[in-house]
Amino acid sequence: MLTIASIKNGVVIDHIKSGYGIKIYNYLRLNKVDYSVALIMNVYSEKLGKKDIIKIENNIDIDFTVLGLIDPNITINIIQNENIKEKVNLHLPSKVESILRCKNPRCVTSIEKYMPHVFHLTDESKGEYKCEYCEEILKVEVDYLWNF
Fold first, then answer.
1. Which one of 18, 25, 44, 121 has the lowest number of neighbouring Cβ atoms within 10 Å?
2. What CATH number was assigned to the domain covering residues 10-89?
3. Other C-beta atoms within 10 Å of 44: how many?
4. Do 128 and 96 touch, CB atoms closer than 8 A?
């Protein structure tokens, strides 16, 4: 049996879709930090079958919008004195700015490089967003988030 100790103060990112933990680990650049981090992959879960977990022995700022795009089922636990101080359940954000990029070559964001890319959630079940300017529909896929 694998045993990972609890953390005193920090963050636990739980219920990560199996295989996505390493993507979040890399996105948060946790390989560059000087405090303890545990990436646990393929843990048995009644709810998900398998899941990944990241335990961070430090309080860090996390962009919930990006993590919600990566996996809207993630739970973030803020740990203080070995107890859960706060629990945040993520979801797909209703508005996303400067994270996704419009693929329409006729969109104003393709011509005017200073314009922020703004998208609004149109279909939560499909993970589809619509560009605020040209109304191009973009389906969010995790691999797309890593290409820019």
1. 44
2. 3.30.70.140
3. 8
4. no
Fold (CATH) for 95-145:
SH3 type barrels. (2.30.30)
Yes or no: say if 70 and 27 are a contact pair by the CB < 8 Å rule: yes
Q: Where is pLDDT greater, at 143 or 38?
A: 38
What pLDDT digit, counting tens, does each position of 50-93 carry? 999 999 999 888 888 888 888 888 999 999 999 999 999 999 99
Q: Say if strands 37-45 and 49-56 run parallel, antiparallel, or are unpaired.
A: antiparallel
The tens digit of pLDDT for each residue in 82-118 reads 999 999 999 999 999 988 889 999 999 988 988 999 9
Domain boundaries, given as residue ranges, for the chain: 10-89, 95-145
Rounded Cα distance between 4 and 97, Å, is: 37
Residue 137 has pLDDT above 70, yes or no: yes
Beta-bridge mates of residue 13: 54, 76
- Cβ–Cβ contacts within 10 Å for residue 118, how many? 18
